[in-house]
Amino acid sequence: MTEEVECRRSFRLKDKPAREYAFRDYLRKKDWLPQEIVEMNKKYDDLFSSVVMNAFSIDVKEMTPEEYLAEKRAMEPPSPPPKKPRGPRGPYKKRPKPLEEGEVDDIVILHSELIEIKNRIKKVKGSPKRKRKPSDNAIKSIEEKLEKVEKLVEKMERKDNKSSVKKQRTDSRLSSSNIEIVSVTAFECSCGVTFDNHAECHRHLFEKHTDSEEQNCVECGNGLDEIRTNHICHVCNKFAENLELHLVSHYRDCNSRTAIMECRFCTKQFKTVKEVMAHEQDKHLQKQVRRIVNVYKCNECSTTFPYAELLTCHYSNHVDTSALWDIVDELQGKIDAEKEECPFCRINMSSRKSFRAHLLKSHWIACKSLSRISLSEQIQTDQKIKQEINEMTRDVETDILMKEVKQEVKEEIPDDEYPTC
What we know:
- The chain is flat.
- It has a two-stranded antiparallel sheet.
- It has helices at residues 35-57, 65-75, 101-126, 136-158, 164-173, 198-208, 224-231, 243-251, 273-290, 308-315, 321-334, 352-362, 364-369, 382-412, and strands at residues 187-188, 194-195, 261-262, 269-270, 296-297, 304-305.
- It is mostly helical and 421 residues long.
- The longest helix has 31 residues, at 382-412.
């Protein structure tokens, strides 16, 4: 008889340990939950059961809907009484309040002072001429100010005083102690000429006087040297009250608000005028000071300039620039050129300002002869247009060369060698 061999049966289900409590694990019974989740689920079950038991233990009073509405109305606050109906409303009119005694006294004082000021103005008009006589414009400005004060007085009579603070403010502003009679003095040059504006006196010193006369402004004592540094443009050599605002017209690439300041010597661009001037002084003007021997000469009036930019600005005095730009635009349309493309050498410029400066600087003779050319509809190609322009400019170039040769010969030959009659 064979003996039975013992074997392990732990793999069977009956030998496996019993599963722990799983909360609502009815979908997947084989899932095992960790101990923390089991404890948390037990707590939620206990809380829910306690809430339910408390709810069942409360005594609920049975009430009909009518009794419930009556109890709710008793707990609400009492409503305000209804407003009485109003009749039809007319236009709203604000009733003016009567003025107080102090305000009436201030108005009377203001009227008396206005009469005194008018009498003084009449005396000034009828008085003989003095060295510093107020001008007619200054007297008119005083009269306008007096009219404004009269209007303020009338408004004060009609105005309602809303609060005591506003009353004190109006009394302090329009009181008799705050009104001052200012004597108007004209600005005078040391030569005796008077002006209404201080800037006009400086303009007169720059335009009418020279360095040898040594005239100064009587008001501030500035001479020509100070006026040149503060008011004279170094590009066009013109007077400007606000020099920085005037320089913007030379450096900006367009007339819009988003204009960028462009260097006159290179293609670099900046945001402000000070940055452009600092760049020019550092990169361009210091080099030109060393070789200032170069002189740029005008072909029309033989005026010389130390810089090419001054010569370009000077050329606008000899040509009607507005008519010239119209002809150039028409010429660009004939040859299908771009907006900033030169119609003569076909070079594209970065901005409209540099394009116009290039025309006056490099193609001055062609620009001068453009006024004599009639751009007919038959001309369609670049060659025909260039041929017509070359024919018109050839005569002008020969005349300029002949003038230069004659001037050189005249300078070389002294007057003693000419035969005398």
